[in-house]
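One-letter codes give the sequence; the integers encode the fold. A sample entry reads:
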Amino acid sequence: RTTMKSLRFISAEAFVSNAEFARKSLGAVSHDLFPLLFKASYLLEQGEVIHDLVENWPLFDFNMGKLLGATLDYEEDLSHRTCSVCLESCLTGLRDYVLNQSSPYMKKLKVVDLTGIKDVEVQFCKCKKTMGRWARTQLLSKLCSDLLVYLQQAQCNPGTFEVSISVLIDLFVTERNYELVVQALLKKCSCPLKICCVAFRSDNLTLQKFFYIIKLTDPSLLRKLEIVHNVHLEMEHLEMLFNHIHFPLLMSLTLPARTFNVRRFTATDEQTLTNIGEKMGEMTHLTELSVSFSILTGRIQKLLSPLKTPLKMLDVSNCSLNHADMAFLANSFHANHLEALDLSGHDIPELYPSTFFKLFSHCSSVLRSLTLEDCNIQDTHVNMLILGLSPCRKLQEFKFIGNPLSSQALKHLFTFLCELPMLKNVEFPVPRDCYPIGITYPIDDASVCRFDHQKYERVAEELNLILLQANRDDVKASTPLFGSYDAAVQETNNELGAYLIKSFKETLEKFTSSFNKMS
């Protein structure tokens, strides 16, 4: 689809397409045209022009989400283009804005907001090189440190030290960029560019380092906290975190796998869980919670009942929930507000079909995203599933890979899915009849690719044809065998892989040592 451009935008493109002319002429450009020229430069990937626009930014704020979002002049949203050329030019332009020797009264910029940048799987920029969240964290931290070193060494205009710009960013910290980010946060008071962390993601970090850096981020401003892979946070550590650090604005919390394990609970652990629930209850803005791959059998009520604000997103995938847990969810005040729900890894048809229906009847008017992966949904359950999904008229995303469904059942289900008006994304399983007879579910990683690929392609074509014949070519249907795209994991998979190999090697060495002692 071709997006319409206004004459103003076409003129802006023409102006910035000649980089040398545009850079020389910026001094004569009206201040209110800078946002227009910025978006045109970003679309054309004119890095030098972007740099100079930011270096001479004449306005009080610079909000990437708004600047690249849909405008009257050009409706296409460019905020999902994490083009490396453009983003590096932006950030180096910001550094040079501080160093630019023009009069201090010319410098109006007070707030830079980088949080509107969206990391997506498919990039449309010509350079095909992206700058993800981790790399943006790395570059901004480095620029802040370099800026301080330069200011200390060079003879700068005294007005340079009066510049103070809050840079709002979603930080992503791992072992590899930890030291650099820590240095930038420690020197925040002295630096003209002040990192303001709005969202924080931590992967592959020791607990000691995590606790240290989270205090430096100014938790009072934090809206989103993700503690994910290879951060060995257990329940007692979480209690300690909540007891010592307050998160008054926190809206979204993601905890690592195995944070909770009720199978080895003591009386002290029960009290710890109660304390954590109460602390979460004090977070009056919390509306998104992910506790996947924890064992929470029979304890969902204890964890969630203290919450005073209804949850809009809940991920309890692979949490070994029982009937009491599902009954609590179905009857809680959260049910009427859930826009995104992940119940993967639970045998829904077998364990709690009626409570599942009740939960759906409550959240159907608002539900936008539903994930039911590895839920043992079989051909005999498809009609029940259709009945449950029918009222979900706002559903935009439905993921159900890993379920033992035949080609025929998938066609029946897709015929129904065409009727959901807002649906945009479907992730469906490889049909059961594409696998060898006798395959058991859930399918292990070693067997997941051992299916008849030609037959799968034929079935996938038939499913897409069902969508096309219903004029639903707006729906994307796919089978990501190893889970949905995760921009953060994709960007740091080499580091995570190296960590896993190191952990495996250490475990093997311990085992060998113990075995030798026994011998």
Remarks:
- The mean pLDDT is 92.
